[in-house]
Write a structure and sequence with these properties.
The protein is mainly alpha-helical. It contains 16 helices and 2 strands. Helix 4 packs antiparallel against helix 8.
Length: 324
Amino acid sequence: MEFLSKYQTALQERLVDTVLVKEPKQLYEPIQYIVSLGGKRLRPILTLMTCDFFEVDFHKAMNAALAVELFHNFSLIHDDIMDRAPMRRGEETVHEKWDLNTGILSGDAMLILAYQLFESYEPTMFQELAKLFSKTALEVCEGQQYDVDFETRDDVSLSEYIHMIDCKTAVLLGAAMKMGAIVAEASESCSNHLYDFGRNLGIAFQLQDDYLDVFGNSESFGKQIGGDIISNKKTFMYLTAIEKSSASEAETLQHLFSISPKDPSDKIETVTRILVASGAAEATQNEIERYTQKAFKCLDRVAISSEKKDSLRLFGDWLMQRTV
């Protein structure tokens, strides 16, 4: 989106300077590598945009935005290790390109670098940002653990799944926006409503990500299509299909999500067919729209101009129509 370009450009320039390779290279090269793969940079852009929308120079929020981006990439390195994922953004994952130990240690270093970035803010603001960051980081870890636990459970509910993606993905989007508001010294009410906006948008975003994992294009999506099916992740679509399918198809799904064949192509094809036939794919798209609209309602209580609220709604619409 054109109005985001100024944030993207400024962020990229600072990011390059933040992840310089130094000794030991084996520690810092993977950090530069994962960051150089690009990605949407949605979270740090939201931090900068939020600050800007409160009439404060968005560069003041740059270090907070960079911290959000480094933390996000730290979590991706470790998630890829846990998921045994071979690709990230169309390229080899860090643990594939180097090794497991390098992935773990470089990820840890990214987390520390993220915390260091808050040190540029005056004490009161530093405390508020660091407190939010720590709370969010712990929630992301909780979400990841729920995600891992669900792979071996047969009784995961839809509400449990939504709670998991809220922790694993949505809280970071909410925190990214709230950090921008904190740096801009917005009111507590505005900061909290923007947090809720980002959080609801984050749930919609993850549901869209789950949908694209099955129905996206590998080349544009940048990840292996069917990855969630291969790793037996019980997504919103899977859980909905279990509820909506016939007894025999539900049994087939449950069986397929208990095995890990060497060639997963037949498994992916069968699961995809059931997701469509059961109406689970359509139900997921409806849920994406529902959480997007919940996010938009949170904007009504934020003290920014109608024009800026429209920009955020446009951003939300664009986010949910993406193919990457």
